[in-house]
What we know:
The structure holds three protein chains of three kinds. By secondary structure, chain A is of the alpha/beta class.
Amino acid sequence: MSDLxxxxxxxxxxxxxxxxxxxxxxxxxxxxxxxQVYGYVGPNGAGKSTSIxxxxxxxxxxxxxxxxxxxxxxxxxxxxxxxxxxEVAVYHEFMGAEELLVLHAALxxxxxxxxxxxxxxxxxxxxxxxxxxxxxxxxxKGMKQRFGIAQALVADPPLLVLDELTSGLDPIxxxxxxxxxxxxxxxxxxxxxxxxxxxEVETVCDSIGIIHQGKLRxxxxxxxxxxxxxxxxxxxxxxxxxLAELNPQPAKAGEQVITVEQAGTDAAxxxxxxxxxxxxxxxxxxxxxxxxxxxxxxxxxxx
Amino acid sequence: xxxxSLLLLVFLFGPAWAQPxxxxxxxxxxxxxxxxxxxxxxxxxxxxHRHHQHGQEEVEAGSEYTSxxxxxxxxxxxxxxxxxxxxxxxxxxRLKGQSVLVWRDTAVVCALNLVIIFWFYRRRQ
Amino acid sequence: xxxxxxxxxxxxxxxxxxxxxxxVTLFLAVILLMLxxxxxxxxxxxxxxxxxxxxxxxxxxSFYAVAMAIFLGVTAVSSDLERRTLYPLLAxxxxxxxYLMGKFVGVLVVLVSSVLVLSCCxxxxxxxxxxxxxxxxxxxxxxxxxxxxxLAAACIFFSTFSSPPLAxxxxxxxxxxxxxxxxxISFFLVEDRESPAVAMxxxxxxxxxxxxxxxxxxxxxxxxxxxxxxxLLSITGYxxxxxxxxxxxxxxxxxxxxx
Lengths: 303, 125, 259
């Protein structure tokens, strides 16, 4: 029994467009272990939505394989084991929340005796316990998104595929959803999570895959992707003109930061002190996910 | 399988296509003809006459819902009007005994369904 | 799987009810309820009044059924696709053919039930004045519902490979060409025309399309002629065969479609 929840090998997809073709996926490889929260990031048009649609069986790949919990992607067995939150969460607006959820539970194969209790549990889990009878059209955007998660959770699947979870939500709603994701992670649910909000990916995910131009450009843990090998970041306050040779960069509120090779840390610290600066922190140098993404995208475009 | 489907189509529809239009026996006409073998083919004049009789009572009752009042103009009437009179008179006759021919058409469509289902399952396997 | 088809049809029906599609039916029902009294006010005499009321009433029901069939057939799948409500549904463990069947059964229920309601209204209002309830009216109206169901299945098929407006145009084309009676083709295209090519084309097109004219048995009830049960059974079988054909074709296209 494989410990992979998702396994994608050499996936290719080309769309026919007016006056030509467009390669959406060019040999995508991807592995998501069970129990992980996997952040799937990339710029618009990178191939995120196409690959997710292939996992759900909404789009047929030209070649390659995709397995969901060991079953071919798109098969009824594979879909039985996953819950899906679409990018734009649109539901039958005229239906009541509980009413629609019961129908979804029935379509997901939940037994009639369990349906109602499962629906109520799912709605309570996403904080909609008091709005079970409300129609979906009465919900705010954040509530609709939470309803979407309840809908994905209703059959108690071991894998959740969430497409652009927090797009268009206010910061409070985003925070609430992040907490919800973390609580689901604690319950052992594998979460495959596409986003272009780097901050939420950084705070929620164990592993990250960066897709660009239909290919996975980088994959690994946050630590792997963000740390810069053998370099140290020194935050300080003080004169910058005298330290121009160290190339200080402005950081938050009057602070400066320099990044140096690990071997040159002592020399750099001495130089700052000599110039009358005060050292604030010394830590391994880290990049932001945005920088990693930007670097990969630029490199990809140059190639 | 595609060739087989095509052959079936040609086999089923081919004869009808091959016949010259005037000789082609469509289901409805066929019934009409069969029916008329027992009674007799109504000529246009007979139909109009019958229609006239049919509408006479209504005309007497002051009805405007009849084409009998327009019967006098029929000599110079456009083709569509002549057709409408003929059509409204021949309609009830067409239904009689036509079920056999409808079943024949149904069998043709069912055969097509079977071809599609067979094709579909063969490809799945 | 049958249960899943039932749930999908239920979802479709609830959607139609809450979108108040039935208000159109109710509006027409009111017209049909008033029609016999209106026709009678012209003092045509009993038999003529009945005939006119039945003729107009059934024509109205037929137009309504055709318009609804095209509208519901074209929008059944495409509206789910446009609003993206299709994605969460198809992410469920249901095959695409079951989704299509669910939609089609939903459309059938809407069509048949509304035609049934309308024909009952017409029958009752005629019976109130003529003191005789003609049950054949309902049978004839149900034949229209059969015709409309075949058309709706065709429109669902068209909507799987074309845009909704084009699917609608194709539906209208199918209805008109498939509905040409053989005598119409004979009269205009064979007897009155010298070009055999036009006649061949008309016959050919007619041959590969459902013969909608078979379902139009209005004159039987207008002229109080008997309708043979064998004929009714045969056109029911014919309609079911065509519906199955269109649903199978729709499934073949829809199963391969990238959504």
